[in-house]
Amino acid sequence: MHRSRVTVVALLIALAVVALGSPSHADPPQGKGPDPALRADQAVFHFLLEHHKDIQRTVKKLDNGVETLTESDQPEVAKKIQEHVAAMHQRVKDGKGLRFWDELFVAIFKNHAKIAMTVEKTEKGVRVKETSDDPFTVKLIQAHAEVVSRFVKYGFDEARKVHAVPAADPETKSRFISPVIKGYGPVVPMPDTEELPKKGTKVVFDVAAVNKDPAKPLPGLERAAVLLNLAGVAGLKPGDIEVTVILHSDATSAALDDDAYRTLTGKDHPHAELMERLKEAGVKFLVCGQSLERKKLDVKKVRAEVKVAASAVSAVINLQARGFAFVPAH
Ligand code: HEM
Question: Which residues have CB under 8 Å from 20's CB, separation 6+?
């Protein structure tokens, strides 16, 4: 398959999984047919998330891991907690992962051989001790225990979110991730902060500035990628936020197709990949017709994903009148 088509398919699947988010959709993106064990595990997560308010949990951090107590006064919920942990214990032993779109879970299963887990049934649930001799795996275990506590506190709202891998060493391991626009606009998940992206938001990025190094992505496109990655981290689907980019002024040439751009500059189009990824995430592109004319660029050479607007100023005014927030990148 053509590489860009593979990327499109992979991205669409990943986005659908992030979008649907619930653990009943936490299957491996390229699963080979139904996996009955996974289906059974999903039914249990589902149940636990539905009954999250009936669960109490305490986590004690140890130097080499965690000790947790997770219980419920409801006998049926207590039984499901025990069932879930037994199944997850087996998955950790076998290295049989799940939630492949959530990088913390991917990291846990990658390091499964370094995790020692003991599970003790209590009258109302389980007491679990998870430890490791490897300092990074200890961080993973502790981060995972915090995520489980968040599942208990917030239920499905948390299960939709992507969880970052803790920094192995703050100097070398970045906490920045790009879950929606791969490779661009990285963000650090900050779930407990104010003003997270909201469903229903409409934004127009007014993109006029170019980088000093013209080979680097346009700052306004990076900013759009940041917003979509923040939205993904917060558990939103790309379609939950409507994004339009208007290219004008110095950024006008980004609207050209690959051949026209090469003819104009002698270089490969530096923003083509980012524009493709943004388009896959539903971003709409406009270019200012007036800027095209002023710069003597051929309107027929505008790339397929970009529509020509009468002007940037009229586009911005119309979009703002339709409720789009204005974000300048001048
Ligand atoms: C309210 C919902 C949930 C509860 C009460 C719960 C409870 C637990 C408990 C008690 C453990 C043992 C480790 C610990 O205590 O930190 C655990 C481990 C695990 N859970 Fe859950 N869980 C819930 C939801 C989920 C969901 C939605 C998933 C994934 C889709 C999941 C996947 C796992 C995995 C993979 C492990 C083993 C990895 C490890 O312990 O390092 N859990 N869960």
Answer: none
